[in-house]
Amino acid sequence: MKLLQRRNKHINKEQDDFGYGCVCSKCGSIFTFDRKDACIPRCPNPDPRDCVVICPNCQHSIFFDECAQFSTLDERENFEKTYHR
Predict the structure, then answer these.
(1) 77 strand-pairing partners
(2) What is the rounded distance in angstroms from the CA atom of residue 52 to the CA atom of residue 62?
(3) What are 23's strand-pairing partners?
(4) Which of 24, 34, 71, 80 could potentially form a cystine with 29 if both were Cys, beta carbons 3.0 to 4.6 Å apart?
(5) Contact present, 20 and 30 (Cβ < 8 Å)
């Protein structure tokens, strides 16, 4: 058997990742992060309650369902402008 062309149309590609915005419930720090900065279980379609990000200030664990996921780059920029001092 010889594979002439590989196609992976059966694999769902993740949508563009514009990141997340979060407010730490422990220290009140506000930060943005990308999916690669978080701890995500190695399973298909992990539940947001199983994904964790660490606050860069106090090291408190925060679940993804407590954070806002950005669907566009404008949403991320607006979040950063709102909380930037």
Answers:
(1) none
(2) 5
(3) 30
(4) 24
(5) no
